[in-house]
TrEMBL record:
<comment type="similarity">
    <text>Belongs to the EXO70 family.</text>
</comment>
<keyword id="KW-0653">Protein transport</keyword>
<keyword id="KW-0268">Exocytosis</keyword>
<keyword id="KW-0813">Transport</keyword>
<dbReference type="GO" id="GO:0006887">
    <property type="term" value="P:exocytosis"/>
</dbReference>
<protein>
    <recommendedName>
        <fullName>Exocyst subunit Exo70 family protein</fullName>
    </recommendedName>
</protein>
<dbReference type="InterPro" id="IPR046364">
    <property type="entry name" value="Exo70_C"/>
</dbReference>
<dbReference type="GO" id="GO:0005546">
    <property type="term" value="F:phosphatidylinositol-4,5-bisphosphate binding"/>
</dbReference>
<dbReference type="Pfam" id="PF03081">
    <property type="entry name" value="Exo70_C"/>
</dbReference>
<dbReference type="Pfam" id="PF20669">
    <property type="entry name" value="Exo70_N"/>
</dbReference>
<feature type="domain" description="Exocyst complex subunit Exo70 C-terminal">
    <location>
        <begin position="283"/>
        <end position="639"/>
    </location>
</feature>
<dbReference type="InterPro" id="IPR016159">
    <property type="entry name" value="Cullin_repeat-like_dom_sf"/>
</dbReference>
<dbReference type="GO" id="GO:0000145">
    <property type="term" value="C:exocyst"/>
</dbReference>
<comment type="function">
    <text>Component of the exocyst complex.</text>
</comment>
<dbReference type="GO" id="GO:0015031">
    <property type="term" value="P:protein transport"/>
</dbReference>
<dbReference type="InterPro" id="IPR004140">
    <property type="entry name" value="Exo70"/>
</dbReference>
Length: 676
């Protein structure tokens, strides 16, 4: 019984402990909950405390005087209305972004694109005119609220700062939309140019009347119209420079590529020899005329069509295209001709250059007359002056150089000096078109610079003096020969050449028939003297005098025949050997002279041999010493005398006034084959 009571008491004690533990745990949880609740309450209190100033500011207008509040309402309405209009335009600007930034919009519908762009520009003008004013009005009302403490000071301060930024000038009211649209227009401008600026397929022009296959640049009127529309918009936004640069790049490269097909590498040829430049000068003249009158003329018209309302852009753009076309390289080549070594061939080439420039003078003035082409104008004037000065200098030295030739040795073969052929043909060239008029024009210009006059008659007189100075050289040259017979051959050759190459020419007409006949008579005279003093001396060696054919005098006759044949053979061999090195330049004169020589020798020899040849016993071993020729053999030998042989270039030398001597091929006189 007692044990049961003890167990019951223990159970009751454990139950009480368990109840106490639960009560303690419940108390701890309640304490924690209270702690958390207190924590949340503290945060809310802090939030309430933080919001109290704002709440105080919000109720401040309620505490403000009634008349101040009533005045603020009207001011706020007046300031907000313009700002709302500005914001509405801003929204409209943003609405234009999709059509303006679409990649294919400008190519697909340029007028539509430009219309949208016009709306954007109009909106930007409105914003530019009104945004600052609306911002100022808002700033004024903010200042009004601040001064009267009708709003939170911090709010007022922040709003004032924001409005101050809005009042500052800005180029990006559209967020860069206009700039992007203008960039797209520039790209389209370049695309249209590139699409229609492919190099033209060209061929070499044969003459100024054959301009090759080129006509005006192949840009359709529709494309030109589009380029003009784009240019108007870009120019209105200050982008003319970008347009001219793009245009000059496209068209300049096109013209340059087109000209390369003509093969203009020779423009870099800076040879010092005018003769070496001669073929290039002829091409240069054709290509320069072709470039100026066809290519650049067409490009100028195209420039005017595209930049129609902007003449200053036309000039600058065309100047760049002309530069790309190599107009300065053409002028540089002309300068190279001026810098070549001085000789008569150079005078012809300088006159060719002047003639080309003179024909293009009006074209140059029209195309390159603007300020943008000042470098082309300057280079052209410099070239013309060098051409005129160089031409006159050479022309005025011609007479002096001909006179200096008087002391030069004549050809050793008795042929015609190259200077005779050269001067005859050269003077005729200067008297013929186009050189006569061009040289006269050059001399007139040069004399005008010195306040002097010049005319065509003065040119003719100057050339006559050159020819007469050359004529005076003949006698001096003939006296230089040690062999007088050779001097006769030389005079015969030279007078006949002079007569034949001047008869029927401009110079021959000026000199007159009487003057020409004198040279023909001189030829006949020296021909007769030459034959008499040379081959004419052989026939008397075969004289029949003293030869008696009767029986008692046969031995004596044989000795006389042998003696006379021996003398004839010796003299013939000597004369033939010597004159085999001589020449007669004119084929007809050579044949006629040989015929006269044959007639002077062969009939006499044939008759002598027919009559006295039998006296020389052909069985005698010594017969070959006396009978060396047959009549037919002599005929053949004599008929081949005086044939011209190839002559070395530069057989004449040029003596300069300073005493120096140079080769004829690099000095004043050249072979007639060098003349064109």
């Amino acid at each position: 019984m007692g044990m049961m009571d003890q167990e019951d008491e223990e159970k009751m004690g454990m139950a009480r402990l368990e109840a106490a533990r639960r009560a303690l745990r419940a108390g701890v949880e309640t304490s924690r909950a209270l702690t958390r609740a207190l924590g949340r309450s503290g945060t809310k209190l802090e939030e309430i405390q933080a919001r109290l100033p704002a709440m105080e500011a919000s109720v401040r207008p309620i505490r403000a005087p009634r008349d101040a509040l009533e005045g603020a309402g009207g001011n706020i309405d007046r300031a907000v209305a313009p700002a709302a209009a500005v914001l509405k335009v801003f929204d409209a600007v943003h609405g234009l972004e999709p059509p303006l930034l679409a990649s294919s919009a400008v190519a697909d519908d340029l007028p539509g694109y430009l219309a949208v762009m016009s709306r954007l520009e109009e909106a930007l003008r409105f914003l530019g005119d009104n945004c600052g004013l609306a911002s100022q009005w808002l700033a004024d009302i903010v200042e009004y609220l601040g001064e009267r403490s009708l709003a939170d000071p911090r709010f007022v301060s922040d709003l004032a700062d924001a409005l101050s930024d809005l009042k500052s000038p800005s180029d990006c009211l559209d967020g860069g939309l206009l700039t992007a649209a203008l960039d797209i227009l520039e790209v389209e401008f370049r695309r249209l140019l590139v699409e229609h600026s492919a190099p033209l397929a060209m061929r070499e022009p044969n003459s100024s009347s054959d301009p090759g296959s080129i006509t005006a640049p192949r840009i359709p009127a529709s494309a030109v119209h589009k380029l003009g529309l784009i240019l108007d918009r870009l120019a209105a936004n200050g982008r003319v420079g970008a347009c001219t640069a793009a245009y000059a790049d496209a068209r300049g490269d096109t013209v340059s590529a087109s000209l390369r097909a003509l093969g203009l590498d020779y423009l870099q040829d800076l040879a010092e020899d005018a003769q070496a430049l001669s073929p290039s000068v002829e091409r240069w003249g054709r290509h320069l005329e072709f470039t100026v009158r066809h290519l650049l003329e067409a490009e100028r018209k195209l420039c005017v069509a595209v930049f129609e309302r902007r003449p200053e852009a036309v000039s600058s753009c065309f100047a760049e295209i002309a530069s790309r076309a190599g107009i300065l390289e053409f002028l540089k080549f002309g300068r190279a001709v001026c810098d070549a070594r001085k000789d008569p061939i150079k005078l012809l080439r300088l006159l060719d250059v002047f003639n080309s420039l003179s024909k293009l003078r009006m074209d140059f003035n029209r195309l390159f007359g603007g300020k943008a082409c000042v470098e082309i104008q300057t280079r052209t004037r410099e070239l013309v002056k060098k051409v005129v000065d160089g031409s006159v200098e050479i022309f005025e030295e011609l007479l002096v150089q001909v006179e200096l030739q008087r002391n030069m040795p004549p050809p050793t073969d008795g042929g015609v000096p190259r200077i005779v052929s050269f001067v005859a043909k050269y003077c005729n060239q200067l008297l013929a078109d186009p050189y006569r008029s061009v040289l006269t024009q050059v001399l007139v210009i040069h004399r005008s610079w010195r306040k002097e006059t010049f005319n065509d008659k003065m040119l003719v007189d100057a050339l006559l003096n050159i020819v007469k100075a050359l004529e005076a050289n003949f006698e001096a040259w003939s006296k230089a020969y040690e062999d007088v017979t050779l001097s006769y051959l030389f005079m015969m050759n030279t007078h006949w050449h002079f007569f034949k190459h001047l008869k029927g020419t401009k110079m021959g007409e000026i000199l007159g028939d009487e003057w020409l006949r004198e040279h023909e008579q001189y030829k006949d005279y020296y021909s007769a003297v030459f034959l008499r003093e040379s081959w004419g001396t052989l026939a008397p060696l075969l004289s029949r005098e003293g030869i008696i054919l009767f029986s008692k005098g046969r031995a004596t006759a044989r000795d006389l025949v042998k003696q006379r044949l021996k003398s004839f053979n010796a003299n013939f061999d000597e004369m033939y050997q010597k004159q085999s090195a001589w020449i007669i330049s004119d084929r007809d004169l050579q044949q006629k002279t040989c015929h006269l020589v044959v007639q002077a020798i062969v009939p006499v020899y044939r008759s002598f041999m027919q009559n006295y040849g039998p006296l020389v016993d052909q069985q005698d071993a010594s017969a070959n010493k006396y009978v060396k020729f047959t009549a037919e053999g002599l005929d053949k030998m004599l008929s081949t005398l005086f044939l011209p042989k190839p002559r070395r270039a530069g057989s004449f030398q040029i003596k300069h006034s300073n005493g120096k001597i140079t080769s004829a091929m690099t000095g004043l006189y050249r072979s007639t084959s060098t003349l064109k």
